[in-house]
Amino acid sequence: MTKYYCRDNKGRFSRPTVATLPKNNCLMFVCDSQDTNQIKDYLGSLAADYDSFFVIVGQGDYDAIWGMVGSVPYWHKVLDRLV
């Protein structure tokens, strides 16, 4: 799996966190089991280790999906970009 990294305010590379997600009006947090199961079915084994997701939905499809372990989106929680 490809890990996506971003730069922190000191120019170092780090994995994205909830605090560093793009500020986008279309960004949604998904933690309900019915919705997360649909995303897991969509992504297959790529999403098996994640409990919740942040998604951006475009024209009827996912433009971006970040997976997160746990279901409480604390600012420091590390994310993995899946799509």
Summarize this entry quickly:
This protein has one helix at 33-43; strands at 6-7, 13-14, 27-30, 52-57, 62-68, 79-81. The protein has one domain (22-81): Roll (Nuclear Transport Factor 2, Chain: A). Helices cover 13% and strands 29% of the residues.
Task: Describe the 3D structure.
The chain has 83 residues and is α+β, with helices and mostly antiparallel strands. The chain has a single domain (22-81), classed as Nuclear Transport Factor 2, Chain: A (Roll). The protein has 1 helix and 6 strands, in the order E-E-E-H-E-E-E. It has one helix spanning 33-43; strands at 6-7, 13-14, 27-30, 52-57, 62-68, 79-81. A 4-stranded antiparallel sheet has the order 3-4-5-6. Strand 1 (6-7) and strand 2 form a beta hairpin. The chain is globular. The termini are close together. The relative contact order is 0.25. The model has no long low-confidence stretch (mean pLDDT 85).
List the helices and strands and how they pair.
Blueprint lengths: L5 E2 L5 E2 L12 E4 L2 H11 L8 E6 L4 E7 L10 E3 L2
Antiparallel strand pairs: 1-2, 3-4, 4-5, 5-6
Integer-rounded radius of gyration: 13 Å
The helix tally amounts to: 1
Q: Could you say how many structural domains there are in total?
A: 1
Instruction: Report strand order across the widest sheet.
Output: 3-4-5-6
CATH topology: Nuclear Transport Factor 2, Chain: A
The counted number of beta strands is: 6
Query: Helical proportion?
Result: 10-25%
Q: What does the overall shape look like?
A: globular
The CATH architecture term is: Roll
| Main CATH class | Alpha Beta
Low-confidence blocks of residues:
none
Strand content: 25-35%
Largest sheet: 4 strands, antiparallel
* Pattern of helices and strands: EEEHEEE
**Class from secondary-structure proportions:** alpha+beta
N- and C-termini, Cα separation? 11 Å
- Mean of all residue-level pLDDT scores: 85
